[in-house]
Each structure stands twice: as structure tokens, then as C-alpha cells.
Amino acid sequence: MEPKPPKKLLEQAARDISGAFATRLCAIGVELNLFQEIKKSGPISSLELAKLTNLNERYVREWIYGTALAGYIDFDKESRKVSLNQDQQLLFVDPGGRFSQHGAFQVANSSLVPYEHLKTAFKEGGGLSFETYPEELWNGLDHTGCTRYRNFLMNDWLPKLSDTTKKLEAGCSFADFGCGVGRSTIELAKKFPQSQFYGFDAYEKNIETAKKYSLESGVSGNTEFQHWTVSQGSPGRFDVAATFDLIHDLPDPENGLRVIKKSMKAGGVFLLMDIEATDDPIDNSGPLTLFKLGMSLHFCMTTAMWQGGKGLGTVGLSPKILRKLCKKVGFKKIYKVSIEHPLNCLYEIS
């Protein structure tokens, strides 16, 4: 007697398998400028799109069919032309916009690329180095950071950060540890020209890009970027110290927090943004849960283990663990700021 078909699980498997390919299709559209060209020149046929992007028409045509059926572009069956509606434009051709997923598809897709390296790590331990990942991952992180800091940090979160905002308005020194390519630093520097901003990051290529962005944004006068690792200890003392999406990535989060504590002036504030997580990882829920765990395995956890850490992981900095670590390094006040965001949490700590 045959077993009863697991209908719900089969349906879920079909959705998830299809979703994996939808992610790849969208990443291709972003990285080969297909979405941008459709917005610029559409409605447009596969032949016209291929000529404008200097791509092979047969590949473009197949990409159109898949991406249209996934719902990310509109396809007219009679004219055989594609276009982008307003919602689709917000997702794909507004880099840095509030609803942009331009970088998210790049991050999800490119984090999966070093698959054979990851399997080796499963067998032998250790982890993957930053250099293992393709350039598209760093481009995607740049774009997702731009969206988050330009919109959520500046417009939604800052008004709720009374201690931090007061210091910035009065003129202070602000250290952005793990600044990446400087998106958060630069956005703050534009709004608070009376304050001085310092960005520190362990990946030298990020620092090069941050310096370039600061020049382009006109804030090179009140920003300074420097290659730095936690193992070097405190690079100075600041009125405000900040980590945006960093602590859970560190090989030794406790030491990272200790260095932050040593980098604060008396009466200073530590602004910590990280990934919203539950005390028990299995209790995590919501639409981005699998993204969090997937990114942990494919990037956050494994790069920390490559650096000799145990690998806290993307959902490893729960409120319970954060408070325990903060207490150990000497922080007294931990205030969780009330924000609405599907991925991040925010704290003012002193």
C-alpha cells in the first residue's frame, strides 16, 4: 500500500525550489542591467533588449519567460514585449530606495556561489575567507546597506535615538566600527556636518570604496576611513561608538564589545544595530527567517570560524546573549529601541 502523499510538504518544496531559481533570475537581471534597460526602453522585445545590453538573444528570451512567470516583470503575449510596472521599478531600478531589493537578490544569490568550499568546511571545520566570495556579494551588501541607512536609519530610527542625536547635533566624534563601504557613516556625516565621523573596517577593499564614496558625497572634510581589525584594540576614544550589523559576525563578540567599551569617552553612547533574534534559534519566525539562517551558514557564521571564532551566527546575538556579554565587559544600561523592521534590532547602550 502506497503512503499518502505529503501534499503540503510537496507544495512547499515546489515553492522553495522555484524560489531558488527566481532568486538567480533576479540576480542576473540586476547584474546584467536587464531591469534597468527595460525601465529605460520598455516595452521592449527580447531581440531589442539583447541588442541594447549586448547579450545573446536566446538567453535573454529565456530569462524573460522565467522572470515574467515569477512576477518580477510584465509580459505582453501579443506584442511579445516586456515592461516594468511601478511596483517592480521600486524593487529593481531604485538602488538605495526604501523598497529596493536590488542588492538583496545579489546577496542571496552570490552567497551561495562558494558551495564546494562550504562542503569542505562541513567536513573539515574552519570556514570561508572574505576573498572566497564574488564581487557581487560585496556589491549587494553595499546596496542593501544603502537602502537601510539612507531610509530606515536616517528617517525612522534617528528620531528615536535621543541620546545619540543630541550628541550629533551638538558636535561630537562618532566611530562606525565595521563600517563596510561607509554608507552609514556618510549618511550621518551629511546630516550632521558639525560632527566628525570615523569609519573602521577589516576588509581593505571596503575602506577604498568608502573613501571614494565620501569624496563623491562631499563629506570628505568630516569623515575619515581606516583599515582596522578588532585584534588591534581600540583605535581611539569617541563620544559615540556604533556597530551596524557587525557584532554577530565577529570571531570573538565579547572581545569586540570590550574594545568598543574602551573606545568610548566618559558619558559616551554605544549604538548597536544587529539582527533580530530569539534566545532559542529554533523559535525564530517571520518571512526572513530562512534568509537569516541561510546567510549565517553561507557567510556570517563561516567567515567568523575562518577567523578562528566559534561562529555566533546571524541569529546568535539574542537579547539574552547580548545582555550577558554587555554585563561582562562593563556596560550598565541597555535600552532596546522600538523599531519596526523585518530584519534588524537597535539598542542604545552605555
Descriptors for this entry?
three-stranded antiparallel β-sheet, 50% helix, Arc Repressor Mutant, subunit A, seven-stranded mixed β-sheet, 350 residues
Give a verbal description of the structure.
With 350 residues, the protein is of the alpha/beta class. The chain folds into two domains: 7-93, Winged helix-like DNA-binding domain superfamily/Winged helix DNA-binding domain (Arc Repressor Mutant, subunit A); 110-349, Vaccinia Virus protein VP39 (Rossmann fold), CATH 3.40.50. Helix content is 50%, strand content 15%. It has helices at residues 7-31, 34-41, 46-53, 57-70, 86-92, 102-110, 115-124, 135-157, 162-170, 183-191, 204-217, 253-262, 289-306, 319-329; strands at residues 44-45, 74-76, 81-83, 173-177, 196-201, 223-227, 238-244, 264-275, 334-337, 344-349. Strands 6-5-4-7-8-10-9 form a seven-stranded mixed sheet. Strands 1-3-2 form a three-stranded antiparallel sheet. Helix 12 links the parallel strand 7 (238-244) and strand 8. Helix 1 (7-31) packs across helix 4 (57-70). The protein is globular.
Short description:
This protein has 350 residues and is α/β, with parallel strands linked by helices. The protein has two domains: 7-93, Orthogonal Bundle (Arc Repressor Mutant, subunit A); 110-349, Vaccinia Virus protein VP39 (Rossmann fold, 3-Layer(aba) Sandwich).
Oligomer: single chain
Largest sheet: spatial strand order: 6-5-4-7-8-10-9
Give the SSE order as H and E letters.
HHEHHEEHHHHHEHEHEEHEHHEE
| Top-tier CATH class of the largest domain | Alpha Beta
